Known about the structure:
The complex is a heterodimer.
Chain A: H1 3-6, H2 20-24, E1 27-31, H3 35-48, E2 52-56, H4 59-68, E3 73-77, H5 85-94, E4 103-107, H6 112-120, E5 125-128, H7 133-174, H8 178-188, E6 190-197, E7 205-211, E8 216-224, H9 228-243, H10 252-266, E9 273-281, E10 286-292, E11 298-300, E12 309-310, E13 329-332, E14 338-342, E15 350-352, E16 355-356, H11 358-369, H12 376-390, E17 399-406, H13 409-412
Parallel strand pairs in A: 1-2, 1-3, 3-4, 4-5
Antiparallel strand pairs in A: 6-17, 7-8, 8-9, 9-10, 10-13, 11-12, 11-14, 14-17, 15-16
Chain B: E1 2-7, E2 11-20, H1 25-35, E3 42-53, H2 55-70, E4 74-78, H3 82-90, E5 98-100
Parallel strand pairs in B: 2-3, 3-4, 4-5
Antiparallel strand pairs in B: 1-2
Helix pairs in contact in B: 1-2
Amino acid sequence: MNDLNIIKKEKPEIPYSEDSDAIFNSKILVVDDSALIRELFGAYLTQAGYTDIQYAENGQHALDIIDENIPDLVILDLEMPIMGGFEVCRILKSNPETKHLPILIQSGRDTASDLTKAFSHGASDMVLKPIKRYEILARVKVHLENRILVSKLTDYHDRVASELEQARQIQLDICPSKHELKNYLQAYGLDIGWHYEPSSEIGGDIGGILPIDETRIAFYIADFSGHGVAAALNTFRLQTWLTSASELYSSPDELLTKLNSFLHNNLSSGSYATMLFFCLDIEKQELTYSAAGSQPPLLQGSDGSKEFELLSSKGMPLGLRPHWDYENIKFPFEKNTKILIYSDALVEVEVEENTYLGEEGLRKEVSDLWHEEKSTEDKISQLVANFHQRMDPDNSDDLTIICLENVNELRSS
Amino acid sequence: MKDSVTTTDSSLTISLSEKLTFEDHTNFRELLKLINNDIHRNCSIDLRGLEAIDSAGLGMLMIAFETAEKFGMSFNLYKPVGQVKRLLEISDFEKVMSIVS
Lengths: 413, 101
């Protein structure tokens, strides 16, 4: 074994890059029962510029070291006393902490079944004895580079996931809480059911309730074109604008006209929002709304025995044209009248091959469901369950459902 | 989205088929370059073969219209069907541009 004699000092083999320091400072654990082989590996690695090398003389010794501090790469012999390499592989791969740890097997066993067994036990790579210096250094480098790259990607993923989760929470906070919905029932005699779920962490749907005074309350639903972060940022933009436009809550047409100009000035070309904005006057028992190309709302009048009907939602989506005049539509909203508003995802699902639920399908479904003796919350849960059964998981969209019923006898009691 | 383009001396016809969605954004930008010139006086987007459109697709049709408008071209959407027709109706597009049914 005169390999040691041919080792001579030379510059590190890895050209400098921003990862070079990370590669040379990586922890490498060499596991072999032969002191000479351990020394050989150590010499190769040290000469190449690696600075943090540990040694173990059998499998159990290796596991003890890994328990204390997980290395970045294990160079592992197969045949050792006390515990062999296959068992080390199995234990490391079964532990979530170490299952991604790269294992480079070095062995004199070179039959097909040996190779198969090594990889099936979780080895990342295998080099055959006699060990060739350039081969081992090249493979060590590849696995450490992969490890650093994966670590960077994982860190990036974790950071983005954490930020998106915070954004998701902020978006969910815009939706009224159960406590707030209960307050609206007491203050306005309105039984309100609400469901919101973004297709990814955050979405382009938004809805809200905006009390005006003791007898009037506004509510809305909006859906920005596109999905994901850009659409979600626009929902915050909309919410901010609405907060500063409270004087318009009782005039849905004016509100949409002004919001359209704002969005046209601020959204990128071709981006827009569909929206329905409602103002409910409890005293007059009258609902006024204005539409900007949203899904047609479903209304059931005070005679609960009749089916729901589809209302008009025609209107230019907000932000597409520089100036647009929107119109108000008014209708009575007496005791027992219910209105259901929803985003397009709810109807754009297949009920059978190439047949979509559509507004008419939803109208029938809601008419049947609302005849049942269930709470509004349970009925909405049923609609959501139906949606999940039908939706294509590869093509999901944000979903919002809001149902509002005038139950004003509760108010007077 | 699949597209085909036919031209005469004064007219440009862009026929779209399958689905017009967010993924077609880049291809649609290329088609806009055809409108974005002084050669033709009329532009028609043939939608007979277009099966579905999403919100981004609707925005692209508005951009096509605005591009034609900027160059003083006449513009129409030709025979939309199904979900495409319904979405154009609900969005009041016929108040802005000609839709041939």
